[in-house]
Design goal:
With 233 residues, the chain is α/β, with parallel strands linked by helices. The protein is built from 7 helices and 9 strands; from the N terminus they run E-H-E-H-E-H-E-H-E-H-E-E-H-E-H-E.
């Protein structure tokens, strides 16, 4: 129980797994939250100090159950990285309204459920960090992102409200905008003609999340943007 505990949501084969590896390498016991229990088990087997807690973060009761299990088995978390994401493509005329609601439940309400459950213990310690992974949809709504962008914008605003509330109490909240195509097999197939440096590496995203979670209190960031060096913006 000497190592600090980090909770990471949305542990998949790309950014989520990279986050688990980075925080485990940084000395944390990592609690992994995602719906896919089989995938979590595979990561837990491959990464020392990574522990699986299957959970749908859009369900408040499931979040409470998972964090209770984390506390009982690993200890009270000091860091939360909310990486779980619900996404969809289509114009506002094309998407089904329930798609927007479903994504809102994962992206925004999931953050609220997690924070409300975990922050009281952080407040008792007088320290903690909450890092949320976002993207450019948090800043602008494009035509075919109607089922996604509103939820990420709401997530960013919720994060900012939390940061303003919790910062003076010793808890650092930050929002990282990933302005890039993440390097995954699916995206490599989609962008076959692009060079390697077109993509952002999951390990590089994880490095920045770890850095932000450990910034000195005299120089905390809230909104952080990361992108490949030649990305137009």
């Amino acid at each position: 129980m000497s190592k600090p505990v980090c909770v990471i949501t949305g542990v998949g084969p790309a950014t989520g797994s990279a986050l688990v590896k980075r925080f485990a390498a940084g000395g944390y016991r990592v609690a992994m939250l995602a719906r896919d229990a089989e995938r979590l088990a595979e990561v837990a087997e491959a990464v020392p100090d990574a522990h699986a807690f299957p959970c749908d973060v859009s369900d408040a009761a499931k979040v409470d159950e998972a964090i209770t299990a984390v506390e009982q088995n690993l200890g009270a978390p000091e860091v939360l990285v909310h990486n779980a994401v619900g996404g969809a493509f289509g114009s506002f005329l094309e998407i089904e309204p329930q798609v927007l609601n479903r994504n809102f439940q994962v992206n925004t309400m999931g953050l609220l459920y997690l924070a409300r459950r975990m922050v009281p213990a952080m407040l008792k310690k007088g320290k903690g960090a909450i890092v949320v992974t976002g993207n450019t949809s948090a800043l602008r709504g494009r035509a075919n992102f109607a089922g996604f962008a509103p939820t990420k914008a709401a997530q960013r605003i919720l994060s900012e409200a939390m940061a303003r509330d919790l910062g003076p109490k010793g808890i650092h909240v930050a929002y990282i905008i990933i302005d890039a195509v993440i390097d995954t097999p699916m995206q490599r197939q989609r962008f076959k003609d692009r060079a390697d440096d077109f993509f952002i590496k999951p390990a590089a995203i994880a490095d920045e999340c770890f850095h932000v979670a450990h910034q000195d209190r005299s120089a905390w960031s809230f909104l952080v943007e990361i992108r490949p060096f030649h990305e137009p913006w």
